[in-house]
Amino acid sequence: MSYWPLVPVLGLAVLVPVLLMGIQRLLSHRNPSIEKLAPYECGVTGIGRARPRLPVKFYVTAVLFLLFDIETVFLFPWAVLFRKLGLFGLLEMGFFLGVLFLGLAYVWRKGALEWQ
Fold first, then answer.
1. What are the Cα distances from residue 39, in Å, to 10, 14, 33, 36?
2. What angle do CA 55, 61, 64 make, to 5 degrees?
3. Under a CB-based contact definition with an 8 Å cutoff, are residues 112 and 57 in contact?
4. Domain ranges within the chain, ordered by starting residue
């Protein structure tokens, strides 16, 4: 399989953004000032660092959300093939959901879902 037809597409993918950014830089009006360069957050002057350190609990909650969200994606193919899978499919999904709920109960008991 030849990849040569991709060369013009990749060239355009690089050329168009560079060209548009160059046109914008040439035609834009630049008048920076201290007020324009200051950070702005809902009308309130920023205090402290722009990137404060977040507690690990935020990351744990995000990972748990992704984990349980991705696990629920497995329910859709099972629901489509439910009649074809029969009792075996029902038992397998019951086992899968049981393990999932045990994990949720464990995480809940450990307090990983608490915000305080």
1. 36, 31, 12, 8
2. 145
3. yes
4. 6-45, 56-110
Residue with tokens 């029902």: 90
pLDDT digits (tens, 9 = 90+) for 60-101: 888 888 888 888 888 888 899 989 999 999 999 999 999 989
Q: In this structure, which CATH number among 3.90.1150.10, 3.90.25.10, 1.20.58.1610, 3.40.50.2000 belongs to the domain 56-110? A: 1.20.58.1610
Task: Give the DSSP letter of residue 41.
Answer: E
The two tokens of residue 71 are 């696990």
Structure pTM?
A: 0.50
Q: How far apart are CA 21 and CA 2, in angstroms?
A: 32
Q: How far is CA 100 from the centre of its chain?
A: 22
